[in-house]
Every structure is written in structure tokens, then in C-alpha cells.
Amino acid sequence: MLREHPWEEVARALELLKRRRPPLVDLLTFHGQVLEAQHQTIAEVNVGDLAAPEALERLRQGLPLAPPVALPVDWAATEALFWRLAPLMQARAGAPAGALAGSLKSGERSLVELVQDWLVGGEEVARASATYGLQEALLPFWLQASLRPSLEAVAARLEPLAEEAEWSRGFCPVCGSAPATSEHRGQETTAHRYLHCGLCGCRWRFRRGECPFCGNRDHHRLTLVYDEADKRCKLEACHACRRALKLIDNKDFFGLIPWLEDLGSPHLELIAAERGFSMAPTRPGEPEPGPAVTPGPSGGRERGEG
Ligand SMILES: [Zn+2]
Ligand SMILES: [Zn+2]
Question: Using an 8 Å Cβ cutoff, are 297 and 274 in contact?
Fold first, then answer.
């Protein structure tokens, strides 16, 4: 979760990452600006109280707290962040982002409705992007970035309950989304594997040597792929469902911030695509897509995970 690390720590880690990955400086600078705005918002968010006994009961039944669209949202903080991010998005996408912002300012469109439509996988976001000539991924990113501190506030309250309920599903206990990254934390003998939700930021413990997407535990069909030059972030790939997930190694390394390592490793996404492993971000709360089928040429080193 963003709130686990003070902004100064994130900024320092970001500078180190830029030195490690010079070709990504422009991209990382952009994400750094988004993260800084999100950090400013975290302190302002209020999502009210969580009914802990009911939430705990749901978790014990293996049910996430609620689908994304039904989670409590601090709309004032979300809207404030959306507008805080607007100059960045306009600098990135130019006039189309300005035109969309204009339609929201004039009341022609509603930001809340746009966010809710995106959360249920509706078509309005794609339609609005097409209307203004915005690149397809920009508006979903902008909406998700704006919503993140609010959803994180819910996740921060639920995380200890998920631990208490010993939640160990392959999907997020808060919003039901598929995991976005995997992480090893702790000393070698006592290290645990955690999964991170890409939507609300919740982190939960999960078994090592098991694919969270399909439950495959056959170590011959689970592979770790990595770049020998930098093993901070690897790819966990499953040959059964052909999905892949980035693994951040906070066991052999120390103090890595998972979502920064994720931003700093697009080469792993290329390797996954080359080999026919799907890493396509799923819409929050949506059922998993069918497995990709085309195995591709190799790239990067590979070993079975035992
Ligand atoms: Zn979640
Ligand atoms: Zn699998």
C-alpha cells in the first residue's frame, strides 16, 4: 500500500530506480508525480467505519468484502485528486485530456458516474476516450489513480481482519480483484509469500509454489523467469493457465517497494508476452480471462520453482 512508505522514502527509491533504469527516466518521472499527488491525498481520505464483525464473517466464508463498485469511496478526496492529476494528464496526452476535463467541469459528464461505470466494466470510459481521441489506457489509469487512496483506506482497515480470518484465496479479500504482484518477505527460513491487489493495494499471504490464478501446484509447471543482471523482480509463470505475475524479492533483497519494482521492470512484461504468458491487467472484480495459448520464443533465464 502507498501509505506504508512515507513520500520521502518513495522519492529516494524512485531516484535509485531511475539510475538503474536510465531508459525509463521519463516514465518513472511521470509516475513519481502521480505518486506524490496520491501521497498528498492519503492524509485527507475518510471512508467512515467498517463493520468489522460482518466483514470478518464474510472473509471466513471466503467472500471478499464487496465488489469494487460497492466499496465505500471518499468522493470528495477522489475528485480532488482527479483534478490534482489533470495538469499531468494534459501534459502527457495534450488537448484530448483537456477536452475531457472540460466536459466534466461543465457538468456535461459526471466523474462519479464515469468511475462507477469503469468499476463495473461498462463501456462509457472507452466511449468517452474515443469521443475525445484519448489513448485507450489513459482515462482508466487516471480514474484508478484518483480512486486509489480511497480504496486503500478501506484495504488498510480490512488487512488485519483478513489476517485474522487466515484469508488465503488467489483473489483480493477487499475487492475480489486478481493479484497484480507477488512478493517474498522475511528471512530465508521464515519468508512468506504475499500477493498485492492492483486496485485497492491490499496485501495478503498466499502459499509459495502455487499459482493464484488456477491453483496449479505442480512445480514442473511453475517457472521463475528473470534477468540474471537484476533479480530484484522476477516473473512467476504458470504453464497450466499461462498466466504470469511479477515476484518482488524482499527476501534476498531488502526494502524494495513492490509497485516501484513493478514500474521498473517492463522487460519482464515483454518476456511474458514473447512466451505467450498473459499479464493483461484484468478489470477489477472481473472474472479471469481464458488462458493465452501461444507459446513463443525464449528470452531471459528460466528455472523450475521447487
Ligand atoms: Zn483489492
Ligand atoms: Zn495457473
Answer: yes
CATH of the domain at 278: 3.90.1670.10
**pLDDT per residue over 126-169, tens digit each?**
999 999 999 988 999 999 999 999 999 999 999 999 999 999 99
Task: For residue 240, give the ligand nearest its CA.
Answer: 2
Alpha carbon of 53 to ligand 2 centroid (Å): 33
* Domain count along the chain: 2
CA 40–ligand 1 middle distance (angstroms): 21
Note the ligand closest to the C-alpha atom of 152.
1
pLDDT tens by residue, 86-129: 999 999 999 999 999 999 999 999 999 999 999 998 999 999 99
Q: Of 135, 164, 193, at which residue does a domain stop?
A: 164
In a shared domain, residues 36 and 110 = yes
Mean pLDDT within 197-215: 95
Domain that holds residue 191: 179-304
CA of 156 to the centre of ligand 1 (A): 11
Which ligand neighbours the alpha carbon of 241 most closely? 2
In three-state secondary structure terms, 250 is: strand
Same domain, 40 and 134: yes
Which cell is 96 given? 484530448
Q: Which three cell numbers stand for residue 208?
A: 509459495
CA of 60 to the centre of ligand 2 (A): 24
Using alpha carbons, list the distances in angstroms from residue 140 to 88, 108, 199, 275: 15, 19, 11, 27
Instruction: Quote the ligand 1 centre to 159 CA distance (angstroms).
Output: 10
